[in-house]
Amino acid sequence: MHRKNNRARAGAIIAVAMLGLLAVSGAAQATSTTSTATISCDASSYQALKSVSHTSSSAMTFWANSVNPASTTRVTAEASNGVWLYSQLVNEGSYVAWSSAPASTYQYFAKRSTSSDCNGLPLGNGNYTLNYTIVF
Amino acid sequence: MRTRIRRHVLTGSVTGLLVLLAGACSSGEDHPEAGQFQKFVESYLGYPIDEAQSNGLSPEASEILHRAIDHGVLTQSDVRESVELTLACFDKSGIPYERLETTDFLGLPYEEFTFSAPAGFDDSDHSWLPVADACQGANSLYVTAIYQNQPASVAATEEWFVATRRDKALVCLEDRGLAISASDSFDTFLQDAKKLLDETGDSTCLELVMG
Q: Which residues of chain B are within 8 Å of residue A133 when distances are taken between CB atoms?
């Protein structure tokens, strides 16, 4: 029993210390991840991109660094609790932001905004490549 | 678009742009730059505005864009109206949603939203997602994108940046060895700050630039 009390007290001290550290250092700073995806030009379904853990107080932003061939990308993300962020359109060299995204782990998804023939071949519409950065 | 932007005392030119974007330009008279704005809208849509409904836009969203073309600008009120249309579509489809109050890139009140699976669907079952996609695509997806990227918003963002954060962002980037000038555009500041984050993991300047 005595040992249990000591353990509980130690846990409380650690929790208070961690809160103190958070207060001193402020909210978590934003970080980023960059990757490249190959996305269908059919615009029929979303393709899963990277998953990120959003803990900062900053907006989450998605940047389309380079796109080939030129395409507008529709982006959305699903939080680990099943909540989805509204979808947005992003063009090459630009970004979109979700200002009030609650802290969570987000799985990003993307598809072409409209269907288009990206390869000029009789069969299928082909793909485009999207190099993107998520700041979270 | 950040939640912690606060209103500041604005310069006259910024105030003018804010008034325009907030919806004060509603005289009903055609804007002299309506033709240019129509081209901008159509470049975003990827088809002529008269084909909006045949390409899936709702009659109401199409009307919003026609009205904006007449005025030469999309207003925040237009965006709010289009979001309301999306949420009404969610209601009809049984898609639960939550409104999130925030501020836009000019510190003006702005409404974002989240949504989730209708009752009876597991989180892993995304078969309902095309319905949510269609609601947004028909109503608010393009209106929001055009609002954020239209020339008036870009100009207002530039003015807002200079009036509220440019000097601190300049010091931040210079302190980290980047060659940047006060006369550089908001976009240059933004790209340099993001490059710094990508290369060093330091997000301080990006957070200053974005507000």
A: 194, 198
